[in-house]
Amino acid sequence: MTTTMTAAPPANNVRQDALVIGLVGLAHSISHFFHLILAPLFPWIKEAFSLSYAELGLLMTVFFIVSGVGQALSGFVVDKLGARAVLFFGVSCLGVSALALSMAQNYPMLLAGSMLAGLGNSVFHPSDYTLLNKRVSTARLGYAFSVHGITGNLGWATAPVFLISIAGIAGWRSALLAAALLPLIVLVILFIYRDALRTDEVAQPNRAATPASTVNPAGVINKNEGTMDFMRLPAVWMCFAFFFMTAMALGGIQSFASVSLREVYGMSLGWATTAYTGYMLASAAGMLWGGFIAAKTTQHDRTITVAFSVAGCFALLLATGWVNAALAVVLMAAIGFGSGIAGPSRDLLIRAAAPKNATGRVYGVVYSGLDTGLACSPLLFGAVMDAHHPGWIFICIGVFQVMAILTAVNVGANTKARALAV
Length: 422
Prior knowledge:
Blueprint: E1 2-3, H1 14-35, H2 42-49, H3 53-81, H4 83-102, H5 107-121, H6 124-135, H7 141-170, H8 172-192, E2 221-222, H9 234-265, H10 269-295, H11 300-320, H12 325-353, H13 359-386, H14 392-421
Antiparallel strand pairs: 1-2
Helix pairs in contact: 1-5, 1-6, 1-7, 1-8, 3-4, 3-5, 3-6, 3-13, 4-5, 4-6, 4-8, 6-13, 7-8, 7-10, 7-12, 9-10, 9-12, 9-13, 9-14, 10-12, 11-12, 11-14, 12-14
């Protein structure tokens, strides 16, 4: 007997599914909020500690390096101890990191606080997707992944407004202290509804003494698979590559799109900020629509191909500088909308590639590609900007989206081959 994907979750009523989706989405939003726990405060922190831009950038790189390594490892912990306990740890860790950052007296303390925030962030994707896959009815998983992506975008959108508003009135330390309260509030809510987050994991026995498992050419793991055998599935590493490519594109948007737009189109700071905001809002809208699409089809690789093809073409058009500033803002929103549509299909594609009882491990390894890309992209796009080629930012974004399409198609083909081999 062979296994190709996670066991089907129980058939819950709509209210139960909505509760789980809401709780997981709330946790995910605070995770993305903490992606930007420092960046909006850089002007204040730079002045307070007399730091260079390179030193400020290193704070973010350290965050994502710790998060990426921790994410790959935390998936194993999720499969062993359960998603709920690991999720509670991550939320708590974020609160402590903000508290530590607010009391930092020197640069090493800032680095330590950033590393602690990265550690807390590392657990969310393995925990979130394990909970959604095990606690939400299969028919509503597409909507669940859509909401999950939207709440992440809302976390990104909320952080700068929250932190800058408070810092402008009471200083950057007060802003971080206020931010430390948010994970505490989320943790209290999760604890109150903790029964909805039970996955009843049973620790798997040590399989070292069992016969060695095999992976056939189609990528199917035999019944007696070991803890690490899922890493021999080609689809897992193609999913990792997919996330790396999409993260490189996302990192370019987040870090340098506004600067590039100002140089290519002569936009004001206000217009460039509006373009980025439009990207984020359109991405959230795309995820909402993408959830409905994902719920009604199993051809998730095709959805990703169409969505990223359109987004990539718009990125290349934006790179030319042929359009006016107003249309450039619209194109930014269109890129975000296309990228957002692909989100729920992406998550269902990974679910199909995950062997039974390895959900946490698979999502941990795969999503570490996201952190790896976000850690690497500032280096690449920063070099492009230093070379005075602002238009190349959008060329690179389009290229990475096309490369993501190739990996998604390969994942879909590999998963279908495994299904036929069962």
